[in-house]
Amino acid sequence: MSATETVDPLFLPAPMAVGDRLIDLARAGTLWSDLTVSIYRVTGGFVLATCAALPLGILMGRSRRWAALFEPLLDFIRYMPVVAFVPLTILWAGTGDAQKFLIIFIGTFFQQALLFTDNVRRVRVELVLVGQTLGLGGMAVLRRIVLRAAAPSLWDSLRISLGWAWTWLVVAELVAATSGLGYRITIAQRYLATDTIIGYILVLGVLGLVTDQALRYGGRRLFRPAEVNS
User: Fold this and answer.
1) Is residue 176 scored above 90 in pLDDT?
2) Does residue 65 belong to any structural domain of this protein?
3) Residue 133: inside a domain, yes or no?
4) Confidence of residue 178 (pLDDT cuts 50, 70, 90)
5) What is the DSSP code string of the chain?
6) What CATH number does the domain containing 174 carry?
7) Considering the entire predicted model, what is its pTM?
């Protein structure tokens, strides 16, 4: 429709116009600069959230006491809209990368911790009992049985939560940013550059798809089912 000018290009530019705009931005170096900054931010925020959520999720999954202490709080906070934290994060961390990390952390950590908890809880009790029967201590059972059994599910939770991290990256960069994919979308909106907006949305979709498929492939390689010799 846009290619045949049935719709005003201001509202929906033609696919070729979007492609040409992305090529121009790539040649000027703007696209690569925005990509580098955004990938750095989403990686930093996601790694911080995972490093905090994984041990907490394992503890809550293995201990009713830890679950009773933290799970209600996590359930409460995860329903708070992350966008509402943007003004607070600017007050707490300024407008630099630390604020972007914090937004991604808030949007990812609480969901991750609960997912990891559920992954650990789903490990079959029979496996744990076998380990205890063989004389394994608590840490040995956790390391050699629980974590190994839960590893594929934990990996899938990582893959799913990385998609959320990309979403919260855009939220972080739409406000108080001077670079990045989300920032460029905001600037394009001011000048009604619809081709840039749609182009960057497509770039974000490709980035999310590539990282998701990379983690999916990594999971298949790491957790291939054992072959049974005939």
Assistant:
1) no
2) yes
3) yes
4) confident
5) -TTTTSS-TTTS--HHHHHHHHHHHHHHTHHHHHHHHHHHHHHHHHHHHHHHHHHHHHHHHH-HHHHHHHHHHHHHHTTS-GGGGHHHHHHHHTTSHHHHHHHHHHHHHHHHHHHHHHHHHTS-HHHHHHHHHTT--HHHHIIIIIHHHHHHHHHHHHHHHHHHHHHHHHHHHHSS-SSSHHHHHHHHHHTT-HHHHHHHHHHHHHHHHHHHHHHHHHHHHHTPPPPPP-
6) 1.10.3720.10
7) 0.88
